[in-house]
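Weekly sync, protein design subgroup
Attendees: M.S., D.O., the rotation student, P.L. (late)

Item 1: inverse folding check
M.S. brought a backbone from last month's batch and wanted to see whether the design step gives back something sensible before we order anything. D.O. pointed out we never logged the input encoding, so this time it goes straight into the notes. Structure tokens as presented (618 positions):
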């Protein structure tokens, strides 16, 4: 954003031009004499002048976009070498002439005048006896009575009308008494402050939680409910020595706010034009804004990625999984890794005989329609849920500094926008029919130790040392694009799959390939070097030997984050060709339909490779 205003406003300290009044119907106001934080009724601000807050933190003035044609009134950090706009008054009503001015209107409102006379933009009208415009050190521009600066009696404040940025101490959310909803709206583009397509709002119901909206009807990101210290879907949002997060939820107000604990720290939360929520902090030594956090930050952050009763697991090859006791509603789409249809119950609920299954480390479902009581115990919560046949899940509502959970949230109906975490999240108890419950708990115990290898086939191919990870991960991007052009607009098969798989082997990172095609003609196979495989299998040690398959020995490969996979080391004389192999792969795509928790891999050794799969017996 450093591009702004190479020639934009600079403070005009010297010129003092006095007009007392004119005989015309409108009065020409005198210009400001010095950079002050206050604009009086008798003054106006021209394009070359600015207001500077008393502590020299923020500055208000006109700025223009690159081409210098449109002028906007904005607030930026006074001290920073790069101009970072945090608020824009007339974002949808730029002025075109350099003789534009800003002043107090007749109704205690801030007005921006084009050519001195026509009003291009105005804040809301009100009544006041002696109003002034003042730029506060918090970055808040207020209209108040000259001798009454108490925040409760501000006539108007820019903090109530945010643009794309939330500053420390600024509220995001609702004044329930007046119906005022403060939310962020993205800029249309990096150099275009007019209202963009994305807005970031707080939903006062349930949790409460925040959502990123595209337009009026599509949610792209949900933070999950507030759980006392953070939003459950933002696990790294921990109170720190730098930032303090608050959510106030009472009869009058529901809002989210953050504060910096050390005044020398600068931090801002903003929605970028592409709909990504970003927190930046200023790093004085390097003179740059550091991206502290952003969201959505992975595929599982996309709103309701896996539909009702599905949850998203970034650690899994196929990120969408159904909660135990549920199966994919649309098997075909699910196999193609489009989880948006979600899952459905295997067994109908009975009410009286139902039980609850615990899911750990979850981002709990969207809570807008949920019942929340922050003073109930989890035991009371369970019995309340048990008694209500419509209740589908319950969980605690709050966690304290010591990690102790309390309170109660009760969901009825579909559970949506869930994901699992490796670290973070909370316990969620989901209602299941008694029969599913028995099955789920026995398979849970069973699967821990008895991962059974199902070796479905092997083929030889002379291509040096390769490891192929299948599960239909890699299809030629071009084929995909041609065949699914429309779908790709929303669901893009991500590039760099080879790197991602390598990452998994080396770092346990996530493979997220959203969409595959069952009948694709071509498969693009990723390469791995032998060292990587040798490392993961501890040099094919006998300790890691899982069993003997049709064409060779199978080894357990341990990834850094504890993820397991299997590698098959082919015996030299298993003579099969690449065509058979690819056919096998295609078949596997169909085969894996609906098998939750099934992961398929292709392993290789020396000049041969084979296809193997591990099946979690569920
Ligand atoms: C405008 O009015 C304020 C207070 O009423 C006064 O302090 C200030 O000097 C005036 N400014 C000019 C330019 O006359
Ligand atoms: C603003 O300042 C520039 C030079 O710094 C000058 O050319 C221009 O006329 C000034 N505009 C106004 C409205 O005073
Ligand atoms: C402020 O003005 C806008 C339109 O300019 C109007 O929609 C809104 O209701 C007004 N708010 C108040 C509190 O008067
Ligand atoms: C906003 O959305 C509309 C309709 O969906 C689209 O045509 C337009 O390009 C989008 N604008 C931006 C800046 O993304
Ligand atoms: C965080 O902010 C809240 C609300 O303003 C305040 O009550 C609390 O004391 C703050 N915590 C710290 C550590 O400053
Ligand atoms: C705030 O940060 C500055 C710079 O990092 C440091 O010098 C100062 O001691 C900090 N103040 C407090 C109260 O922590
Ligand atoms: C997520 O996937 C990983 C890897 O497959 C698995 O170990 C883990 O149990 C899964 N988490 C849940 C909650 O199923
Ligand atoms: C919340 O639970 C407490 C304790 O069980 C109870 O006293 C209170 O009435 C409940 N509040 C609501 C709104 O249900
Ligand atoms: C359960 O849901 C049904 C349909 O949504 C509704 O008619 C009924 O009143 C609900 N029962 C309870 C106890 O809330």
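Designed sequence read out in the meeting:
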């Amino acid at each position: 954003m450093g591009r702004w205003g190479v020639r934009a406003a600079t403070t005009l300290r010297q010129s003092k031009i006095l007009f007392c009044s004119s005989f015309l119907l409108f009065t020409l106001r005198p210009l400001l004499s010095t950079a002050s934080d206050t604009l009086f009724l008798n003054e106006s601000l021209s394009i070359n002048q600015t207001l500077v807050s008393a502590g020299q933190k923020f500055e208000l003035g006109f700025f223009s976009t690159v081409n210098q044609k449109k002028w906007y009134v904005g607030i930026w950090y006074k001290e920073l070498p790069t101009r970072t706009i945090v608020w824009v008054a007339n974002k949808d009503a730029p002025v075109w002439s350099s003789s534009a001015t800003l002043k107090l209107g007749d109704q205690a409102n801030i007005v921006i005048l084009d050519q001195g006379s026509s009003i291009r933009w105005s804040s809301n009208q009100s009544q006041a006896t002696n109003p002034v415009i003042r730029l506060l050190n918090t970055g808040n521009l207020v209209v108040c009575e000259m001798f009454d600066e108490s925040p409760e009696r501000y006539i108007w404040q820019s903090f109530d009308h945010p643009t794309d940025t939330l500053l420390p101490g600024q509220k995001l959310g609702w004044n329930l008494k007046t119906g005022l909803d403060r939310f962020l709206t993205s800029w249309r583009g990096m150099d275009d402050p007019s209202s963009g397509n994305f807005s970031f709002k707080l939903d006062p119901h349930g949790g409460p939680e925040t959502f990123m909206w595209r337009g009026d009807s599509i949610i792209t990101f949900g933070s999950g409910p507030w759980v006392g210290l953070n939003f459950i879907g933002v696990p790294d949002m921990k109170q720190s020595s730098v930032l303090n997060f608050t959510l106030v939820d009472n009869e009058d107000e529901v809002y989210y706010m953050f504060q910096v604990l050390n005044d020398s720290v600068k931090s801002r939360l903003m929605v970028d034009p592409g709909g990504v929520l970003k927190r930046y902090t200023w790093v004085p030594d390097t003179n740059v804004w550091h991206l502290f956090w952003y969201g959505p930050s992975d595929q599982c952050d996309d709103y309701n990625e896996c539909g009702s009763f599905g949850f998203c697991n970034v650690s899994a090859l196929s990120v969408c999984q159904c909660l135990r006791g549920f199966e994919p509603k649309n098997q075909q789409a699910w196999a193609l890794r489009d989880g948006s249809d979600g899952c459905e119950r295997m067994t109908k609920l009975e009410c009286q005989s139902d039980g609850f299954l615990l899911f750990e480390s979850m981002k709990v479902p969207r809570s807008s329609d949920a019942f929340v009581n922050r003073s109930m115990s989890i035991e009371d919560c369970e019995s309340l849920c048990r008694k209500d046949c419509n209740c589908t899940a319950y969980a605690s509502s709050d966690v304290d500094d010591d990690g102790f959970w309390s309170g109660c949230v009760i969901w009825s109906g579909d559970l949506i926008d869930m994901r699992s975490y490796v670290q973070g999240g909370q316990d969620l108890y989901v209602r299941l029919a008694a029969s599913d419950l028995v099955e789920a708990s026995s398979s849970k115990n069973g699967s821990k130790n008895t991962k059974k290898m199902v070796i479905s086939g092997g083929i030889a191919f002379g291509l040096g040392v390769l490891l192929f990870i299948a599960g239909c991960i890699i299809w030629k991007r071009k084929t995909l694009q041609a065949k699914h052009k429309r779908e790709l607009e929303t669901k893009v098969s991500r590039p760099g799959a080879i790197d991602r798989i390598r990452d998994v082997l080396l770092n346990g990172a996530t493979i997220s390939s959203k969409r595959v095609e069952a009948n694709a003609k071509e498969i693009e196979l990723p390469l791995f070097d032998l060292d990587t495989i040798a490392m993961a299998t501890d040099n094919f040690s006998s300790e890691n030997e899982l069993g003997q398959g049709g064409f060779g020995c199978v080894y357990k490969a341990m990834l850094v984050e504890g993820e397991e996979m299997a590698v098959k080391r082919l015996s030299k004389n298993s003579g099969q060709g690449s065509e058979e192999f690819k056919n096998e792969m295609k078949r596997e795509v169909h085969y894996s339909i609906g098998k939750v928790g099934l992961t398929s891999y292709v392993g290789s050794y020396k000049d041969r490779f084979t296809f193997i799969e591990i099946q979690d017996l569920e």
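Discussion: Residues 244, 246, 259, 261 surround 2-acetamido-2-deoxy-beta-D-glucopyranose (ligand 5) (CB under 6 Å). Residues 1-32 form one domain.
Action: P.L. to compare against the previous round before Friday.
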